[in-house]
Amino acid sequence: MAMPARYRERLLEACGGRLVVTVDRDHCLLVYPLPEWEVIEEKIIALPTFNKQARLLQRLLIGYATELEMDAQGRVLLPAVLRDYAGLQKKAILIGQGKKLEIWDEDTWNESQQEWLAAVQDDDGELPAALEELSL
């Protein structure tokens, strides 16, 4: 997968093109600059191991975590196990999410996006307290 120029330059500055790619419960891939991943990994490792959900999250995120490096053209070769997990076929979508990126199969992204838009329009859901004071 080739990184768009706007991300490539930032990633080269932030981490010399060294990235960690892992899986997400939504069946996409999460891409972190190596220094950002190291912070996240510490937090995941610190989760209580007697909590079943925490253990599953540790196994999923840390178990699939793969360190990769961008080549001179800004490309990253995703291992087959990660491509398979995310169902990456022909076209992939790269979504910026602040300190990380997400890689989605185009069809999965389009389907999920429609579900999220419908959920946002549903007034039954409550916003987390931290978002109630957010102004966009």
Describe this structure in words.
This protein has 136 residues and is an alpha+beta fold. It has a single domain (5-105), classed as Chemotaxis protein chec (3-Layer(aba) Sandwich). It is built from 6 helices and 5 strands; from the N terminus they run αββααβαββαα. It has helices spanning 5-15, 34-45, 52-64, 80-86, 106-121, 129-132; strands spanning 18-23, 29-33, 66-69, 92-97, 100-105. It has a 5-stranded antiparallel beta sheet. It is globular and about 50 Å long. The protein starts with a helix and ends with a helix.
- Which structural category fits the helices and strands? alpha+beta
Task: Count the E strands.
Answer: 5
CATH superfamily: Transcriptional regulator MraZ domain
**Straight-line distance between termini:** 32 Å
Strand order of the largest sheet: 3-1-2-5-4
Question: Segments where pLDDT lies below 50 for 5+ residues?
Answer: none
Please tell me what the overall shape is.
Answer: globular
**Cα radius of gyration in angstroms:** 16 Å
Q: Please indicate the percent range of residues in DSSP E strands (runs of 2 or more).
A: 15-25%
Helix content: 40-55%
Total count of domains: 1
Order of helices and strands: HEEHHEHEEHH
The CATH C-level class name: Alpha Beta
How would a crystallographer describe the biggest sheet? Answer: 5 strands, antiparallel
At the third CATH level, what is the topology name? Chemotaxis protein chec
Q: In the CATH hierarchy, what is the architecture at level 2?
A: 3-Layer(aba) Sandwich
Average pLDDT figure: 89
- Helix run count: 6
